Amino acid sequence: MPTVLVVDDDPEVCHLLVTFLEFTGFTVLTACDGRDALHQLACAVTLPAVILLDLMMPIMDGIEFRSHQRLDRRFRDIPIVCLSARHDARQTAARLGLSEFLPKPFELDAVVAAISRHCAA
Q1: Nearest alpha carbon to residue 81 among 56, 105, 113
Q2: What are 60-85's pLDDT values in tens digits?
Q3: 73-77: long-range contacts (C-beta < 8 A, 24 or more apart)?
Q4: Residues paired with 31 in a beta bridge
Q5: Range of 54's domain?
Q6: Nearest CA to 41 among 10, 13, 80?
Q7: How many CB atoms lie within 10 A of CB 115?
Q8: 21: CATH
Q9: Count of domains observed in the chain
Q10: 8-50: per-residue pLDDT in tens?
């Protein structure tokens, strides 16, 4: 199964996603903010097939992460599924060119479906 990078500052959300995605068969990496995610990508032996990205995080938010990701040819093409409760998240995800948007709270089956769609692409 593919690797997924979960980028979210909420430990409960991360734990829920890691537990469910690993149970489903995915390999999961986690990062607590955008800066940590860039570090995870730079150090990864195998790049993730999909990134699950929250927009609102301390240190480096999802918007800033996306601008850095776009500049690095090693991982600029990794699809991003935005998971956010931000009031304008759908519009922000579209403006950033993210692959998909799922509002928080999300359905776990919808997250797996989104990952699968982008892994198959």
Answers
A1: 113
A2: 999 999 999 999 999 999 999 999 99
A3: 74/41, 74/42, 74/47, 75/41, 75/47
A4: 7
A5: 3-120
A6: 80
A7: 24
A8: 3.40.50.2300
A9: 1
A10: 999 999 999 999 999 999 999 999 999 999 999 999 999 999 9
